[in-house]
Amino acid sequence: MSASRLSTLLAKSVLRPTPVNASRHMASTLRSPRVSLLKRADVPPSHPKDPSFTTSPYNEAMGNIKSQAKMVAKITGYTVISVTTAVGFVWQLSHWYIEYMMSPTPPELGYQARNLLHGAYIRETLAPNFEVASFYVREALRIALEEKHLEESSNTVIQLRLRLAHDEAHAGNLLDAITEYTRSWKLLIEKGDHTKEAVEAAKHIGDLYLRISDYEHAEEFLAWALHNTQDDNTLKSKITLTLASLYALQRNFQLALPLLSETLKAVPETDVCLKAIVQNQLSEIMFGLGKVDEAMGWAQAAINASASDLKNQDCLECGGVASNNLGKMLELKGEFDQALEYYNQAVTYSLSVHDSESRDRYILNQERVQEILKNKVQ
To answer: Which Pfam families match (predicted)?
Structure first.
C-alpha cells in the first residue's frame, strides 16, 4: 500500500463522526445502577448526628413544661370557643322558640323589652320564680312608657300591666297586684271596653281584696263583674262562687248557700276543677253551720274531683285548699295521724302551683301536728 493511500485512510477514520446510537449507549451506561453504585461507593459515608447532652436538667424540664402548657392552652381555648358558640346558639334558639311559638312580643317594644319578656316567660313557666318574673315585666313596662313613649291606654301597655299584676299576685305581693289590676281595669273602662277582659280584671281585683279581708271592696268589684258578664257561663259561675265565698267569710251563710247550690247545678260535668271548687266552698259553709260530717264529705269530694286533672292550675289550687281544710277538721276531732297526711298533701299541691303564701300556711299546720305527735310519743 502506498504512503499516499495510507494517509488518506487515516484521515477518513479520524474525521468520521461518532454514531448517534453509540453516544446514547455510552450515556446510558454511565447512568446505569452499577455505575451509580460505584459513584456512591466512592463518597465517604456521612457520620450519624452526635447525641446531644444537657448540662441543666432544670432548663430541659422547664422547656417540656412550656411546650405542654402551650398545648393545654390551645386545647382549652378551642374548648371554650366551642362551648361558648354552642351555648350562644342554644340561647338564641330558645329566644326564637319563645318569640315565634309561645309568647310573641309586640314589635313596638324593641329588642331589650323582648328579651326581658322572654326571661319573664321562663320564670313564669319553665323555672317558676314570680318575683323575678315581675321584675322583668315591670322593666319592660318602663321601657314601653319611658323609652318607646307608648300611651297608657294602648293595648300593649294594658297587657303588660295585666301580666305584671298576675306575677305580683303569684309572688304574694297582693297590694301591688291590686294596684296593677285596678289600673288596667280603669283603662279598659275608659276605653268603653266592658268585655270579658275587663270582667276578668274586676274578678281578680275582688279575689285579691277577699284575700286581704277587705270585704267591702271585694263585694263592689265582684258585683260589677257579675252584672257585666254576658254569655260566658263558666266565668259567671266563677264570679258567683267568689261572691258566695265572700258571704261565707262574713258568716252570711243564708246568702252563700243558695248561690253555691245554683252554681253547682250550672257547672258542666266536664269542668271537674270548677266543680271541685264549688264542693270545697260548700264544705266550708257546712262547717260554718256546724255540720262537720257534711263538711268533711264535701271536702273529700272536692279532693277527689281535683285529682281528676292534675295538670290544671285550678284543680291543683283547689286540691291544696280542700286537703288543708280536711286536715284542720280531722285535727279538731283529734285524729292527728290522718290530719298530718292531708296537711302533707296540701303542701305537695302548693309546691306544684308555686303558691308561696299558701305553702307557708300549710307548712305551719304540718309542723304543728308533727310536734303534737312527737309529744304524744314522748
So the answer is: TPR_7
Assigned superfamily of 197-266: Tetratricopeptide repeat domain (1.25.40.10)
H or E segment to which residue 304 belongs: helix 292-306
Contact 91, 122 (CB under 8 A): no
Give the residue extent of every domain in the chain.
92-192, 197-266, 269-377
Q: pLDDT of 198-242, one tens digit each?
A: 999 999 999 999 999 999 999 999 999 989 988 788 888 889 888
Which single residue is written with the C-alpha cell 279575689? 207
> DSSP letters of 4-57?
HHHHHHHHHHHHSPPPHHHHHHHHHHHTSHHHHHHHHHHSPPPPPPPPP--S-H
Identify the CA nearest to 244 among candidates 224, 260, 266, 264: 260
CA distances from 263 to 215, 242, 278 (A): 21, 11, 7
Mean pLDDT score, 165-178: 95
Asked whether residue 325 carries a pLDDT value surpassing 50, the answer given is yes
Smallest Cα–Cα separation from 138: which of 171, 107, 98? 171
State the CATH architecture for 269-377.
Answer: Alpha Horseshoe (1.25)
